[in-house]
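Fold this complex.
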Amino acid sequence: MGRGRIFPSALFRKEMLIQNLIGGIQAGSLYALVALGLIIIFKATSVLNFAYGEMVMMGAYFSLVFYSFLHLPLPLVFLFALLSGTLLGLLLERVICQPLQRASPMTIVIATVAMMGILKSLARLIWGPGYYALPIFTVTPFQFFSLSLSGNTLYTVLISVSFMGLFYLFFVFTKIGKGMRATSENPIAASLMGVRIPQVFFLTWAIAGALAALSGLLIAPLTGVFPDMGNISVKGFAAGVLGGFGSVPGGILGGFFLGVAESLAGSYISTAFKDVIAFLLLVAVLIFRPTGLFGKQG
Amino acid sequence: MKWTILDSHHKIWVPLLLVFIGLAAIAPFLDVYFLYILTIVCLNVILATGLNLLTGYTGQISLCHSGFLGIGAYSCTILMIRLHLPYPLALLAGGLIAGCAGFLVGIPALRLRGLYLAMVTLGFGEIVHLVFHHWQGLTGGPLGLKVPTARIGPVVFKSELSLFYLFLFVAFIFVILARNLIQSKIGRAFRSIAYSEIAAQASGVDLARYKTLSFALSAFYAGIAGGLYCQLLKYLSPDPFGLFESIQYLTMIVLGGMGSIIGSVLGASLLSILPEILRDFKDYQELIFSLLLMLFILFMPRGIYGMIRSVFRF
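Structure:
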C-alpha cells in the first residue's frame, strides 16, 4: 500500500497490465474454443470449415431464442443451444462433408465458403440485421485484492476451460475418442483396425457443432448477437495456425496467445492495431513457420 | 472430382469482336440504366478473367481479389489527387501496384497449397480492408475520398456513355490479352501447374516463377479494374472491398466455368445482371448467390460453359 502512494503511476501501470492480461485471457479462451472446433473437423475430415464462424453465430442466435424469446432457465438454454448446434453440425456434415469426401481442397473451400454465405444471409433474413443483447451472466464485479473481475469474464473462462478439459479427457480416455484420433492419423489404417469412419465423421461434426454453439453462447454476452459475428472464425483460424493447425493443444495455446497479444497491442500500440494483429500473425506464421509457433520446425 | 480445364477456342476472338462492335454500336441508343449495368458487366469481366487466370488456369485459390481491386482503386485515386498524374498513367500505376501486391501474396503460395493458401489470402484481404479503414491520412478512412474525374487528352469521362466506352475498350483488350496469354508458353505452364505441380516441375516448369507470375498478373487485372471502378463509384470508401465481394468474384468463375475465358465472360455477365433482375428481392440476394455457388460446385463444377460444351460436344 505504501509503495502505491509513493509510485502511483507505476502501480497504475501494473494494474492496467493485469487487467489487460485478464481481458486477453478471456478473449483468448473464446478464440481457443473456436480454434478447437475448427481443428477437430480439420483433423478428422480434412475439411477446413470456412462456415464454422457462422455455426458459432447460429449458436448465439439459438441461445438468444431460448433465453430472450422463450425465457427458459439458464441450464436449459445451455442444453438446448448445444443440442441445436449439434443438429446443425450434423446437417452440414450431410451437405458439405459427405458429397465432397474425394473433392479437391479448392472445391471444399468454395463449398464451405458458400455455406458461410447461406447461413449468414439466412440469419439476416430470419432475425434482421440488428444487434441483440444477450445478458446471460451477471456483470457485478468480483473483487480479488485490488483487481476486479466481472462475472462475465470469470464464467467465460471457467466454462470454456472446463469444456476444453472435458474434450481432452474424451479424446484421451474414451474408445470413441481414441478412434477419432486414429482416424485423423491415418483413416485407412484406422478403418482396418475396426474404426467405423462414417461414424467418426458424423460424431466429429456433431461435437464441433456443439462446440460452435457453446462458443456462440459465450461470445454473445460480450459482443451482442448479430449476423456478422461469425467473423470471429478468422481469429480461430489465426489461433489454430499459431499452433500449427493440426494439434489441439497447439490451437488452444495459440488462442490464448492471440487473445493476450491483441489485448496488449490494443492498449499499448493503438486500437487500430488490435484488429490487424490477428491477420498479421496469421500471414506471418504461415509464411515463416507453417508448422506453427509451438510446432517442430518441419 | 478432378479439376478439369476447359480449353478456350482458338476462334473466340471473332465472336468477341462482334460482341464488342455490336455493343459499341447500340450503346448510344440505350438508356442510362442499361448503360450502367453494361458498364458493371465490363468491369466484372476484367476481374473474372484475371481471377480465372489464377484460380481456373493455375489452380491457386484467392479470397482477396476485392483487396487487389481496392488497391488498384485507391492507388489510382490517390495518385491523381496527390501527384496530379494523368488518368491513363494513374490507372496503369494502380494496376502495377496491385500486381506487386499480388506478387507478394504469391510468395507464400510457393510453400502453401489448398487450404493454407486460402487462409493466407483471406488474411491478406482482411488486412487490406482494415488498412483502408484505419489509414485515414491516406485513404480518408470510412469517410472516403472524392475521385477526380478522368480525362484523356481532350476527352472527359463524365457521361455514362463515355465511361461505358472506356470500360468496354479496356475489357476487350484484357480479354484478348488473356486469351493470347493462355495459348503461349506462360499459359501452358499455368495449366500444367493446375494439373500436377510435380509433373510440371519435372517437365521443367519453374514453379516459383510461374506461380508468382500468375498471382501478379491476376492482381494486375484486378488493379486495372479497380482504377476503372473508382471512376464509376465517384466516391471511394472501403465498403466495396470486403470478403463478400471476393466470394462474389469466385462465384462468377465457378458459375461461368473454371479455366475458360468465355466462362469468365459468361459468369461475370450473369452475376452482374442477376442482382438487377432480383432488385425486388434485395434481401434474398446474398442467399441466392451463395446457393448458386453451392449448387454449381456440387453438381456442375465445370460451370455453364462446361455444360454448354458437353451438350454440344465441341
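Chain B touches chain A through 44 residues (CB under 8 Å).
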